[in-house]
Amino acid sequence: MIKLQNLRKDYVVNKKAVTALKRIDITIEQGEIFGVIGHSGAGKSTLIRCINLLERPTQGSVIIDGVDLTTLSKRELQKARQDIGMIFQHFNLISSSTIFENVAFPLRLAKKSKAEVDSRVNELLKLVGLSEHAKKYPSQLSGGQKQRVGIARALANDPKVLLCDEATSALDPMTTQSILRLLADINRKTGITIILITHEMQVIQEICDRVAVIDNGEIVEAGKVAEVFLRPQQEITQEFVAQVSRFEWSDGLLRQNFSSQATGKETRCIVRVTFLGEVTFQPIMFEVLQRESVAFNILHGTISRMKDTPYGQLELELSGIRADVDRAVATMQARGLDVEVIG
Ligand SMILES: Nc1ncnc2c1ncn2[C@@H]1O[C@H](COP(=O)(O)OP(=O)(O)OP(=O)(O)O)[C@@H](O)[C@H]1O
């Protein structure tokens, strides 16, 4: 488990302190994929570099499996860092070394025998699908292949944690997908904890279990990806969600012509229905509305997936006898749909 407690980082620029991080409190569970999303300059790189103490926090603790890294001696820290692999946006490979030697590098630093190095490097190259490229140099590989080398190198000493610093930002969308799939696969097979930073919501949606949104050096929103994604509270989170969802958080076009009306026993209202997980595939909503004789208009809708979880979201205009509409909403809620009356 990783605990960042009351972390703060100030840089000194022209004798003046610039606060890059403040009041950071995050707990990351063993084996989860945790994403941090934020705009440029929000403090993401500083945050991830504080986890392995490439940047030393000005204040606060970085506790990994009960050990506060900020209290360790240089030698102890060096040892602790063997449990923390890292990959980078621009791969940081050694251009004058072969792919084999790039992956072997951390093993040689850890003084492994030649036989151990050979066997481990071959195993890692196989894992990332680059066995045939062992003798090539980084310049002979594509961006995606270079990142695969980065991943193999980061995993060489079998770390417990993998830090990903904008690992897919330099890659095209297809290559991004394949690298994210590889990371998710490694996480599933080995149980390694992955922490990644990104400015792309698609990356979070694709592989993360939980997400924290960072703005101006502070975590402004955090939680399970599905929850943050479907109910973004902060404006900045809503902007990130809009990158991947065509769902309008402001009024949709059709809604502009709508005003909730009630005449006598009749009522008209707008509801937002959220389907998450298996219920996405069940015809609950239409069944209930039909049974209760509630008429509906679909104003807006989206369907997609978060990591392995399918989800859908619809905005509907409901009209009918008030008691029927109320009962339909209550029944849908009781059957596992998230129904919110929004207008
Ligand atoms: N070495 C440094 N010295 C001084 N200021 C720094 C240093 N590194 C970062 N900063 C400042 O700290 C703040 C956070 O920067 P950081 O690089 O962590 O943000 P980021 O979210 O990773 O941005 P980007 O996505 O553009 O890399 C910024 O105001 C930046 O100018």
Topology:
Elements: E1 2-13, E2 16-28, E3 33-37, H1 44-51, E4 59-64, E5 67-68, H2 74-81, E6 84-88, H3 99-109, H4 114-127, H5 143-155, E7 161-165, H6 173-190, E8 193-198, H7 201-207, E9 210-215, E10 218-224, H8 225-230, H9 235-244, E11 261-263, E12 266-276, H10 284-291, E13 295-306, E14 309-321, H11 322-334, E15 338-341
Parallel strand pairs: 3-8, 3-9, 6-7, 7-8
Antiparallel strand pairs: 1-2, 1-4, 4-5, 9-10, 11-12, 12-14, 12-15, 13-14
Helix pairs in contact: 3-4, 3-5, 4-5, 5-6, 10-11
The protein binds adenosine-5'-triphosphate.
GO molecular function: ATP binding
Domain ABC transporter: 2-241
Protein name: Methionine ABC transporter ATP-binding protein
Tell me what you see in this structure.
The protein is α/β, with parallel strands linked by helices. The chain contains eleven helices and 15 strands. It has two domains: 243 residues, Rossmann fold, CATH 3.40.50; 88 residues, 2-Layer Sandwich (Alpha-Beta Plaits). The structure holds adenosine-5'-triphosphate (ATP). Adenosine-5'-triphosphate binds next to strand 1, strand 2 and helix 1.
Name its key features.
single chain; 343 residues; alpha/beta; Rossmann fold; Alpha-Beta Plaits; 6-stranded mixed β-sheet; elongated; binds adenosine-5'-triphosphate; Methionine ABC transporter ATP-binding protein; translocase; ABC_transporter-like_CS
Integer-rounded radius of gyration: 24 Å
CATH superfamily of the largest domain: P-loop containing nucleotide triphosphate hydrolases
Q: What is the level 1 CATH name of the largest domain?
A: Alpha Beta
Reading the helices and strands in chain order gives EEEHEEHEHHHEHEHEEHHEEHEEHE
CA(first)-CA(last) distance = 43 Å
Beta-strand content estimate = 25-35%
Small molecules bound in the structure, each named once: adenosine-5'-triphosphate
User: How many individual β-strands?
Assistant: 15
Using the coordinates shown, work out and report the CATH topology of the largest domain. Rossmann fold
User: What integer is the average pLDDT?
Assistant: 91
Point out poorly predicted stretches.
Answer: none
Strand line-up across the major sheet: 6-7-8-3-9-10
Number of domains: 2
Q: Helical element count?
A: 11
Question: Could you say which structural class the secondary elements and strand pairing correspond to?
Answer: alpha/beta
- Most strands sheet: 6 strands, mixed
Query: Architecture of the largest domain, according to CATH?
Result: 3-Layer(aba) Sandwich
| Overall body shape | elongated
Q: Please bin the fraction of helical residues.
A: 25-40%
